[in-house]
Amino acid sequence: MRSVCLYFQVHQPFRLRTYRFFNIGQDHYYYDDYQNRHIIRRVAEKCYLPANRMMLQLINEFGKAFKVSYSISGTALDQFEQYVPEVIDSFRMLAATGCVEFISETEYHSLACLGNEQEFIRQVETHRKRIEKLFSQTPQTFRNSELIYSDSIGETIGNLGFHTMLTEGAKHVLGWKSPNYIYCNNLNPKLRVLLRNFRLSDDMSFRFSEKKWSEWPLTAEKFVGWLNAMDPHEEVVNLFMDYETMVNINGKKAAYSISFIICHQLCSAIPTSHSQPLKNCITAFSLWPLSRYPMQFPGPTRKGILQHGKEMNCSLKLCQNFIPSQMPLQSATTR
After folding, report:
1. Neighbouring residues of 161: CB distance < 8 A, sequence distance ≥ 6
2. Tens digits of residue pLDDT in 12-24
């Protein structure tokens, strides 16, 4: 039975107003309140509220068989509270179902992890406390801004008490390996690492409406067929997407329709596939025979990953929990 982990990012930055030379020394307010209010209300009306209603409909229809995870940045929460508090209420309704997990990230969707570890930790703790206050959940999973990851960042996150971290299933890092397995941090093996299946995530997010795409049109049956055609040993497919892909904010109904139908079809395909919250996807695997995981999978991988112009030490290995005790665990680190 294949697990499909759905995670959506919800982020809205604060827009800056035009600041002219003659404002220097005269006016120290830099934000464009009109644009912030206009855009967040527009996106809430066309995307967040209808998408949340859609998710609630799926939960009501399929119950515990459908689960989903969200990462909402602190800047988005600020604007929700200030301009569209009904969006917060709709997320609380989802949280009350017990089928929704809220993920922690940096409070300001920042790159603090690349510059100042103490500031990074402060922002992570601030966001975690905010999620606890708003949705009565203590986040166990962490996603960094733009899914930036390295061994040292993962070690820091593990030391903060998180059980799972998300990152990109980058092809130039994985090489011949698959993102459809559960890995662990090389320095802190207790931290599980889930990798985004970038091909399927981007198919669902961007390419579904591209008529020049060789697989156009993308239908729910075709998408589920791709999942069923995977190697049966690959037990988890991580679909990480921006939440705005669920409903096209330009007013077109295609994005809403295909995303809704695919999610509905994934649930209808049970027991072929089922969705899991990120924190539960690991415990679900422990119930299945460990022999179902191929032993030849671990191996050498590239030592570093280039993120934002900086070479970062990045190495992953399969979780020991899913390797039979009689088989040695090969490290994916090249030292």
Report:
1. none
2. 999 988 877 777 8
Given 61, 146, 210, 215, the catalytic residue: 146
Q: What is the pTM of this model?
A: 0.77
Spatial CB neighbours of 263, under 8 Å, sequence gap ≥ 6: 6, 54, 58, 66
Residue 155: active-site member: no
* Residue 194, beta-bridge partner list: 166, 182
Structure tokens at 219: 């239908």
Q: How many helices (H) and strands (E) does the chain have?
A: 11, 12
Taking the CA atoms of 231, 165, 5 and 220 in sequence, report the sign of the dihedral they define.
negative
pLDDT in tens, 100-158: 999 999 999 999 999 899 999 999 999 999 999 999 999 999 999 999 999 999 999 99
Q: What is the C-alpha separation between 246 and 226, in angstroms, rounded?
A: 20
CB atoms within 10 A of CB 60: 11
